[in-house]
Records
---
Amino acid sequence: MACPDGRRKTHALPTPQIGGLAILSGFGVWLAGMLVGPGLMGEPLLLATLLAAGGLGLVGFADDKHEVPPLLRMLLLLVFMGIAFALDPQLITSRLYFHSFGSTPVPIWVYLPLMGLTTIGLVNSVNMADGQNGLVGSMFVTWSACLMLLTSGTMALMAGMLCVLSLIFLVFNLRGRMFLGDCGSYGVTFAIGLMVTLAHARGEVSLETVIVWFFIPVVDCLRVMITRPLQGRGLFEGGRDHFHHRLIDSMGMRLSAFVYIAAVTTSSLFATLAPRFALVCLCVLCGFYFSFARLSEGEADRKAVAPSDEDGRNVVTLSVRAREGK
């Protein structure tokens, strides 16, 4: 359960934090069934996703109950990435594919560290974006749907199942009945990352399109990583300095969620269906992001917690609808 604490967790009532567990358990059962089905015993991506994404989801579940040190989480993430790559060597490619610039060779000693850094960045970016109802669930649905459009065979089936499970979770999450939890932001994001990696290795999705999909959560994570140390704050310290908080301050709770989701969904689908315009999408997303993101704290951030009253109790002025700000 995610219990309100009046600081970062400002939702009104204790809320089940098992959305990720629900998605991954259903997805795991489906993957196991596919593995024992006729003609699919040789699909290494199924086993790699089941073991690696499921294992990382358990790390997230443990983090939900008892905080796991950040460096240990990153180390375990790299371990599970190594397991996935060992189980499915097709995840390793010797070329990077661009729609606008063709392909370029990349040596394995560059590719593997690059994938490790990318995986750590993506998982933590999505985890940080999970601070408002509907955001991450909508991104899961969008990215899964885009993979369905670009791939075929077993991977398209995997993306379709993940899309359906994420959509079911989203129905409850938008109503504030269920939160995703670190189990979902780690495990589900990792599963999507594996599918995107293999799709790119097969030349089914260009690098520009992938960047468009993940642009907003990743660039927001990078901005926070730069600004927090400059402000004398810990890198993994929670706060109201994420992009969705900037939108909430500018637009209010409901409109900000709609705008965030619409920006990710429309740009992702456009770059998927018309990859030649992916660079245009990136320019538009840059303009949108930096129109609201700012490098320093604003008035709303400074007033997030009002001065103490006569009894010494802090009067919290954050909306009771706002979720945990990671």
---
Amino acid sequence: MIVEVKVPVFAESVQEGTVLAWQRRPGESVKRGDHLVDVETDKVVLEIVAPEDGILQKVVRTQGEVVQSEEVLATIDTEYAALERRFEAEPPQVLPITPGEPAKSAQPAPAAGGPLPGPGARRLLAEHGLEPDAVPGSGKEGRVTRPDVLAYLAARERPPAEAAASRPAPRAAAPAAAPAPPHLPAAHARGERREPLSRIRARIAERLVEAQHRAALLTTFNEINMQAVVDLRARHRERFEQAHGVRLGFMSFFAKAAVEALRRFPAVNAYLEADAIVHHDYYDLGIAVGSPRGLVVPVLRNIDQLSFADIERQTAQFVDRARDGKLKPDDLLGGTFTITNGGVFGSLLSTPIVNPPQSAILGMHKIADRPVAENGQVVIRPMMYVALTYDHRIIDGREAVQFLVTIKEAIEDPARLLLGL
């Protein structure tokens, strides 16, 4: 039976995808759940797996082609897998031999002077009408194996130039070493290369330009004394990790502080749509995460209902999945407010760009020891600059400044987060 491998149904906001890379080639045996091909959308890279056991018969969409939801990517022949299981379960039939009469065999004859092909190879040879001596054997004493036959069939379907390139070169005596070309000075290495823009990178560029063109963006800054949170983490880090199995970072403190600030200033949790302001009565926090393919913003939903451990655990999972290209489309949907932490890369200060259609984004930065005045004395404290970029069309400067002050007060006195002060 021929089974179709199809593109999954994309999220409503995703129109199409691009075939990124095939992990298997036509003629190869695959198992149900095996990774076949990657399809890149403007949000994530999807791993398409084999729906059934069988042989990858035909690739319909090749690398670089644009595909739509539920479009056929390839076909798998499941009969190969079924026949192979039956052949392994049932021993080959042995024909009776009459005295004085030469033996008759239903199996292909071995190559001249060579061993008999393996069971799987014999079946494939018979199905395709091939003689054993037509296929080069790689087994012991030149025995033809099933992979040998599959490789021969795949090479027969490829263009002659490609098939010739895939065959191993014959062994020959090593030629005399040729003189090495003269080394070019580094100053002469002036090459250029052109790299296609990935869908994710193109989407990032589109959204960032859209944010700057369609919103009145303004950034306000403040600085936070991180000493109280640093001391709190130092006291409880080990017990927290033992109890919850996750590291206690800074993100959970800022996430909880953001919830309190969003409650006090609901305009920051809203967005502008035509001639109306749409307010959210829930708090879905986007966490900007760097990945090899670009910046992505997975969403922690109902952040106000999550514990510190839940926030740290889900954030760590998002970071791992973004790094490995395993984020799902649902991970990136929605979000009412975003936090980005450039401090993990060493950024001391920046002006983050709002993630449309949201109206504000909080930027965290590197913690650095700086001299500050406390009670008339100059002391060294771990300080962090924070930035709030906001859409001035719906958020006034007073609200933006007070929002950031609320974040500052909550972080400098973490007890406020527990007491709701």
---
Amino acid sequence: MEQFTDPQKKDIKVLLKFAAVFCGARHGNRSEFPMKEDLAPLFRERINLCPECRALMEYALSKRRRCPLDPKPSCKHCHVQCYSRDFRAKMAEVMAFSGKRMILRGRLDYLWHYFF
């Protein structure tokens, strides 16, 4: 698959925002996350991540691009667990931390993503 589909782009946008919130609150030593050409138009602001979060997002993007399910369910409801155990635990930590933080900041659109 050469480019991301529209649903994939939406998922990736949410995922990178969650990672940016998590990394901003927990880590230092952040630098700009390079966007691929097909994702760059989605973001008005730059995404800054530490090396650990950058590796997690690169792994997540590669797995999201190769997902065979259509339509893709959220990972917590998926019967195909494509993430390794370590990455799955780290992603759950990022999503739980950032989801609560984003909802408390008034981003009620993420409330739907958090619960479903």
